[in-house]
Write a structure and sequence with these properties.
439 residues, mainly alpha
Length: 439
Amino acid sequence: GVAYLSGICDAAWTAIGLAVGTWLNWFFVSRKLRRYSNNIGAITVPDFFAKRFHDKNNVITALSALVIIIFFIPYTASGFAACGKLFNSLFGINYQVAMMLSALLIVGYTITGGFNAVCVTDLVQSIVMTGALAIVLIYGISSAGGWTAVMDNAAALPGYLSLTSTFDVASGSEVKYNFLTIFSTAAWGLGYFGMPHILLRFMAIKDPNKIKTSRRVASIWVVIAMGVAIIIGIVGLAMSKNESSMVLKDSETIIVAIAALLAKHGVFFALLAGLILAGILASTMSTADSQLLAAASAISQDLMVGSLRLKISEKVKMIAARATVIAIAVLGVVFAWNPDSSVFRIVSFAWAGFGASFGPLMLFSLFWKRTNKWGAMAGMISGGITVIAWHYASGGIFSLYELLPAFIVSSLFIVVVSLLTKAPEQEIIDEFEAAKADK
């Protein structure tokens, strides 16, 4: 949708940042986090932070759970908004009704099957997504008159194919980007270091010998998925020039519009169009279910058992986790109630929130033994507050993506506060060294 609307600059630098961030996260964090969390018996991200810093009062656990709840609501809302737009633009179903039905479906299998169900469905959904992207790309280029026609159309728009400027739809002119704007856009990649639902997968790795293969699969996949998505935006723009019957209510529904055109060519092509639409639904579901699961563990395991120290049975924990999933889903539906809400903008806010609150802390926890619990809390709080404040400010430097300044602020607070307060106990240092030395 972003590439379709304004060219490749914003979309490409976001994709480049995400691709680099994926690889760096797997290379530097995955093995060490898996080893460290296994050594200290941590099963969730808040649990890891609490045990890493020996937080006996569980303040870090409570703060972590709070961050997860605050930022998972808009993140989950982005998935529901995507589903609402899909069925609204395809079948004309009321946006809010479609969104609520999608939420019920995702919540249903998440609370029924838990972590195993999410892992299995994610695999199947990724296969469907791959097929959908390939079909859209091939059909789109053909309908647009070939690759040459696609590129000629894009080249005719000033700044559309540039990596240093963007195309402004309103004025039809080119808008130049400076280095700082480009760098802040690419800073999307920093968010990976703080994503609870991704870090949770690292902690759950069964065989550390497969991490290298997993890193390659993940890195290659994100390059293909993001690259094809950008190309589809460019192809969709060319198609909109040639196809008078192409209906596009929103730039973020470009794939839906292409699928609708494909379905007009007969039963076989209608089945392919169905696969494309299933791919969109799959991409939404595979993210939303992971987020709901992480939020559920934050409440049932980290907040209730860890912070509040409630003596509850496994059955009660399960009920609490399921209730959390339902509550987050309801709030997500409310958050995305406006049909004009941008999926991309909602995601960018939540992504920044997690990236700045947890990202610097995760890196310092794994690689700097002098980090203490006071620095951890200061970094978490300052990162989250900076994201929120920056997001709602406007003009000048505040036009930069909030993740970059918030990541820097959080890092500074971690270092400064840790150095100004008491050094970690020897037992904590020993655990750090053991995780570093363990193979």
